[in-house]
Amino acid sequence: MAPDTRTISLTVNGQPHVAQVEPRRLLVDFLREDLGLPGTHIGCEHGVCGTCTVLLNGASIRSCITLAVQADGASIDTVEGLAQGGELHPLQDEFSEKQGLQCGFCTPGMLMRAREILAENPDPSPGQVREAIASNLCRCTGYQFITEAVISAAARMRASKEGVAP
Amino acid sequence: MKPPPFAYAAPDTVEEAVGLLTEHADAEPRVLAGGQSLIPLMNFRLAKPGYLVDLRNVAGLSGIRREGDVLVIGAMTRMAEVERSPEVAVAAPLVTEAVGLVAHVPVRNSGTVGGSLAHADPAAELPAVALALDADLVAAGPGGTRVIPAAAFFTGPYSTALAADEILTEIRLPVWPGGHAFTEFSRVHANFAVVAVAALVELDGDGDGDRIRRAALALAGVAPTPVRATAAERALAGAPADAATIRAAADAAATSLSPAGDLHASPETRRGLARTYLRRGIELAVARARNER
């Protein structure tokens, strides 16, 4: 017997999608396997490590403990949506520049969490960034370079918003 | 590490949701709120419900409102919304302080107040808050709604007075006229607390005004359910709000506890933490009560 499926409609990185999913399909597996967007990583699968972090209607969530059916009607942003027209997002650029990644496993989640942090506070202190990224585990960098990258990206994003070349 | 198959419905009304729980009783159905506790358990296959009733489309279950001296929080209200709410900060600052200690932002963006209460983890923050404030929990079932006092709601680890066909719809929190504090010890910031304390103190308005009129103290992490420190509450009522009184009350409360030991902490450690965090919580609540006057 074919498994019971539901139809869901959602927007991912600005693109509308309508899909059939099993109710047990995790959002992270839907993104990776069904939509072919493997940028979002799977780590602990119980909501602790944060590498599966994506934005749901602008708010960070753990896509490994969210069912795809729970995202019906929502707008999802993943790491694949950060770069625009072949240009890296300032966060990605600064992560590269400041060596905010080594193995890269945590990076998709870190970037999406950083995006939410800067949407709420465009000018955070290093202490505020450190506290906010405590939701995401990194085993390589010791967080110092990630914090520096987020602070640098914040400055560039503020400058470009004010119409000054970053 | 993926949930086993289950049937699923996302009804539009509480009545339909209750009806589905009744109709599919044989499938051991579970209610899905934010899923931040249930879905990890399903990923590990520690929970294998055959049917999930998702409350996401049910109108009227989410929201915050004030009804006189009561703050009402809908069961599906996300923790992040509660944390940011100026209305909650005014009417129930204990809730604001506690909710900020629940996991991390991405979990609070999805996790709900009702979900945390119905999940009833013995180390969770919000059950202790509900118990300290003598909150009323409103449940809807086949026979209509009923009100369950927090003192009767938590029946064991991950167990509540909710029947299998009942849904928690809202929590009603009396406004406390005085000082508050939520303090906890956890191994790592945002982990579950090893011991947590919710403290509420009201000072006497008359005379020299530095006597405690009444106190409400609840602890998490020291028993199968959150517990009130009733002996300490009695010792504080009518007593001077000084360091010696507070220390004696915290000592007495901690001594009367019989916490279990686990890999996080031995019984002795938990008792010691309860003593320290009770003392700090009461002191902070007293200081805030003084500032209120």
Features of this protein?
heterodimer; A: 166 residues; alpha+beta; Ubiquitin-like (UB roll); DNA polymerase, domain 1; 5-stranded mixed sheet; 5 helices; globular; B: 293 residues; Uridine Diphospho-n-acetylenolpyruvylglucosamine Reductase, domain 2; Uridine Diphospho-n-acetylenolpyruvylglucosamine Reductase, domain 3; Enolase-like, domain 1; 3 domains; 5-stranded antiparallel sheet; 4-stranded antiparallel sheet; 36% helix
Mean pLDDT of chain B: 96
Parts with pLDDT < 50 across at least 5 consecutive residues of chain B: none
CATH class of the largest domain in chain A: Alpha Beta
Rounded to the nearest angstrom, the radius of gyration of chain B is: 19 Å
Radius of gyration of chain A: 16 Å
Span of the ends, CA to CA of chain A:
57 Å
Number of domains of chain A: 2
Beta-strand fraction estimate of chain B: 15-25%
Helix-residue proportion of chain B: 25-40%
Q: Catalogue the unreliable spans of chain A.
A: none
Q: How would you describe the shape of chain B?
A: globular
> What is the tally of helical segments of chain B?
12
Query: Which H/E pattern describes the elements of chain A?
Result: EEHEEEHHHH
- Tell me the number of strands of chain B: 14
According to CATH, the homologous superfamily of the largest domain in chain A is Beta-grasp domain
Mean pLDDT across residues of chain A: 95
Structural class of chain A: alpha+beta
